[in-house]
Every structure is written in C-alpha cells, then in structure tokens.
Design brief:
Blueprint lengths: L11 H27 L2 H22 L8 H25 L5 H8 L3 H12 L7 H22 L6 H21 L3 H4 L3 H24 L8 H29 L1 H4 L3 H15 L6 H23 L1
Helix pairs in contact: 1-4, 1-10, 1-12, 2-3, 2-9, 2-10, 3-7, 3-9, 4-12, 5-7, 6-13
C-alpha cells in the first residue's frame, strides 16, 4: 500500500475506529481472566467465537455483503481463521493463566514490530526510518516490566511460559493482520471474510478443546456468559471489522499503534482489579514503552 494514498491518522474515519478498538481491547484483557477462572482456556476461546461467528454472518447479510467466496478467498479465510481466531486467542488465554492481563497487553502493544516486519516481507509495505529506534526503546521498557513480572509471579504460575505463550499469540495475530491485506483479501468484503475466518477458527477451537481439555464444561453463572457475550460481540464483532479495515487503509504497522491506547486501559484495570503493584522499575518500564511507541508513531507520520 502506498504511503501517499493512506488517509491521515487524524482523520475521523481513521482516528475514531483507532481509538475505539484500542479502548475496547484494553478492557477485554481483564474480562478474559474471568473466563479462564470458570472453564479451561480452550473452552473459553470456543465459547467466545461460538457466539461471535453467527453474529458476524448476520452482520454481513444485513450489510448486503456477498457470503460466497472463491476458492482462493476460502483458503485465505482458513489461514487467517487459524492464526487469528485460534492461534492468537488460544495462546493469549493460556498465557493469562501465568501472567497478569496488563502485562500481556503491554507485550501486545509491541505488535507494531512483527506487523512491520511481516508487512515488509509479505506485501512489500515499507518501514519508515526512525521506526526501529522507537521500537527498540519500547522493547527496553517492556523488558523492564517483564523482569518485575518474572520476580513477582503474582499468579503463582510459570512466568517464562506465560511470556512465551504471549509472544506466540502476538506472532499469530501479526501474521493474520498482514496476510489478509494481500490482493486476494482486499477483494473480499471485510465482514463476510471475517465471518468465514471466524467459522474456520471456531471449528479448530472446538477440536482443540476436545483434545486438550476433554468434554465441554458449561458454566451456569450469569457472570461468565455476560463476559463471554461482551468478548464475542463488543470485543470481536464490533472491533475486528474496524481493525482489519484500518490495516487495509493505513497499513499493518500504523494500525498496531492502537496498542498504546490498549495498554493504558489494560494496565489501569489490572491495577484496580488484579492487585498489580507499581514500583520504580515498572513505572520506568511503562514510561519507556509508551515513549518508544510514541517515537515510532511520530516517525511513521513524518514519512
């Protein structure tokens, strides 16, 4: 995609979905912790997209988008579905069993890095000078946060495993972000494409849950299903079409900067409800992460 033809980051059609997706996703990190407290993570992921998938198909139909895809489009939807709606979320849900949701969100704020690399490799999207320097500053900040997490291990789990799983989720999400913006993906109506991708991902999630976690465990609490509905409708059906449209409009690298908003919301919720304790190390790390991402964003805008 040409930088010249990309709309301004400050135009309403970019800024509104950019801020909205970042804010909503910042809240979903915390809601996920409630889901994995009631059922195995694999079933939590399946229930989320069991609700989101039919809603996406209904939305596509209401919008008048074609539901039938070509063979290459089905194959692309399959790949994106496995990466985004299975790999990404399975990694994330499992990671939150070991490290706090705020830290996972901070790690995902660095999605700009693999997004920029994969976009360059797969679709020839150029990276502006200065991006790497800002990203390195952000990585230093996140590393400081992870050092604290490693030492504190507030959930009593395997912090190293949690970090590795979060990285796996970030890479899966990045691949899905980038490959859907190829010429084949751009020819498919967005919501229709995401509906099929979610369906393929949900089928994989179901099979994975049976193999890994055994027969379905169906919670009966209203809180669980309210949280699942929020994740499915607000955190998926509302946000993913907005997010993927941004990727097509302004590029995968720039779109990932909504992680700055996500981090602010997620860390606030983690502090309020998960007992996250700030120290000079974590405060400095968070500041560096945000400054680094801001520098990277500025360099992209100046291009």
């Amino acid at each position: 995609m040409s930088e010249v033809s990309a709309p301004s980051m400050l135009s309403p059609k970019v800024l509104i979905p950019f801020m909205l997706t970042g804010t909503i996703w910042g809240s979903t990190w915390f809601v996920i912790t409630g889901q994995i407290a009631d059922v195995p993570a694999a079933w939590g992921v399946f229930y989320r997209f069991m609700l989101a998938t039919p809603a996406l198909f209904v939305l596509a139909a209401v919008m008048g988008q074609r539901l039938k895809l070509t063979r290459p489009e089905y194959l692309l939807a399959l790949g994106v579905g496995i990466a985004q709606f299975s790999g990404n979320f399975l990694f994330v849900y499992h990671s939150e069993q070991h490290i706090t949701s705020g830290i996972v969100a901070v790690m995902f704020a660095l999605l700009m890095v693999p997004n920029a690399v994969f976009a360059r490799l797969f679709i020839g999207e150029k990276v502006a000078s200065g991006f790497l320097a800002g990203s390195l500053v952000a990585i230093v900040g996140v590393t400081m946060l992870l050092v604290h997490e490693w030492n504190a291990a507030p959930l009593g789990g395997n912090v190293g495993l949690g970090i590795a799983l979060a990285i796996g989720g970030m890479l899966a999400a990045s691949i899905a972000n980038v490959v859907q913006a190829n010429p084949t993906g751009r020819g498919v109506p967005m919501v229709s494409f995401l509906a099929w991708a979610a369906l393929f991902g949900t089928i994989f999630d179901l099979a994975y849950a049976f193999v890994i976690a055994g027969p379905p465990q169906v919670p009966t609490t209203a809180a669980f299903w309210a949280g699942t509905a929020y994740l499915a409708i607000i955190g998926s059906v509302v946000t993913f079409p907005l997010h993927y449209n941004l990727v097509r409009q302004i590029g995968a690298g720039k779109t990932a900067y909504n992680g700055i908003v996500t981090v602010c919301v997620a860390m606030l919720l983690s502090t309020l409800f998960e007992g996250y304790r700030w120290t000079p190390l974590t405060a400095s790390g968070a500041a560096l992460a945000l400054v680094g991402m801001g520098l990277a964003l500025r360099s992209k805008q100046a291009k």
